[in-house]
Specification:
It is a single chain. This protein has 121 residues and is an alpha+beta fold. The protein folds into two domains: 11-50, no CATH class; 60-118, no CATH class. The protein is 36% helix and 21% strand. The protein has three helices and five strands. The chain has helices spanning 17-32, 37-50, 87-100, and strands at residues 60-66, 69-74, 82-84, 104-108, 114-118. A five-stranded mixed β-sheet has the order 3-2-1-4-5, with helices on one face. β1 (60-66) and β2 (69-74) form a beta hairpin. The longest helix has 16 residues, at 17-32. The protein starts with 16 loop residues before the first helix and ends with a strand.
């Protein structure tokens, strides 16, 4: 059974389009090699996320502290895209924004150090 861009496992549905398409491509290749479907999904998802092709051009969006709470700002940006009182509230909106823009979300701690990078938020 091969998957297509319109017919794929449910676990692929929340992946950004480029990552999902790469996962489908990898999964189909693994199925052709005789891998078990359950393993194929996990392997394809991980490999697609690690895939560096297309990552170079992705914009980075940073969740950082702001005088009014927390902000989402584009890398090298001068103005906040979003500002919220708490990091938790901002993260929900920031994930959606970064996914929509097919960008990378970089989450910082209160002290400014990087907490994590989300390639598909």
């Amino acid at each position: 059974m091969s998957w297509t861009k319109s017919d794929y496992p449910n676990s692929f549905k929340n992946l950004p389009t480029k990552v999902r398409n790469k996962a489908i491509e990898i999964a189909n290749a693994l199925l052709d090699e005789g891998y078990e479907e359950g393993r194929v999904i996990a392997i394809a998802t991980e490999q697609a996320r690690k895939n560096k092709e297309g990552q170079k051009d992705k914009k980075q969006y940073h969740v950082k502290t702001h005088e009014n709470g927390w902000q989402l700002i584009k890398e090298d940006g001068k103005q906040a895209i979003l500002v919220e009182d708490t990091k938790e509230i901002l993260l929900e909106e920031a994930k959606q924004y970064a996914n929509k823009k097919e960008g990378i979300l970089v989450v910082h701690r209160q002290d400014g150090s990087v907490e994590k990078r989300l390639y598909e938020a």
